[in-house]
Amino acid sequence: MILMGFSYAKIGVGILLVSLAVLILVIAYRKFLAFLAKGEIPPDKYCVLNSLEVNPAKGEIEFYFTNEEPSFVHFEILNNDYTLNQEISAKEHKIGGHIIRFDSTKIINGEYFFQLRTENQKTIKKFDVLN
Description:
The protein is of the alpha+beta class. The chain has two domains: 2-36; 43-129, Macroglobulin (MG2) domain (Immunoglobulin-like), CATH 2.60.40.1930. 22% of the residues lie in helices and 44% in strands. It has one helix spanning 8-36; strands spanning 2-3, 6-7, 47-49, 60-67, 71-78, 84-93, 96-103, 110-117, 122-129. The protein has a four-stranded antiparallel beta sheet, with no helix packed on it. The protein has a three-stranded antiparallel beta sheet with strand order 3-4-7, with no helix packed on it. Strands 1-2 form a two-stranded antiparallel ribbon. The longest helix is centred in the first third of the chain and has 29 residues, at 8-36. The N and C termini lie far apart (89 Å).
C-alpha cells in the first residue's frame, strides 16, 4: 500500500536507519566518556577532612581527617586571602582517623582556612578564631 508516495517498507527502513544512527551515537558517547575517565584517581586514595565541631574556635582546636591508605599529609593554616599562615604538620599518616591539634591562641582572632594537602588532593575548609 502506498501512502502519499511512501510505502510501509520505506517507512520501516527509515525507522531502522534512525534507530541504528541513535545506537551508534550512544555507543560513541559512552566510549568518549570512558576515554575522559582514564587517569581518574580512585576515591579511596583521598583523605576525608571534617569540619570543626565548634566554630568559632578558641583555645586548642582538634582537626580530624581519615584516610583509607597511607598518605603523606601536609596540614596548614591559611589566612583569609589563602596565603600560608603556618604549617602545622607534614608527615606520613597510616590508615584510619587522625586528630591534629592546634593552639589557636598563637594567631589573632579572625577568619582563617585549614588545608589538607596530599599528592592527589588539596582540601580547604573555613573556620573562625575567637579567643
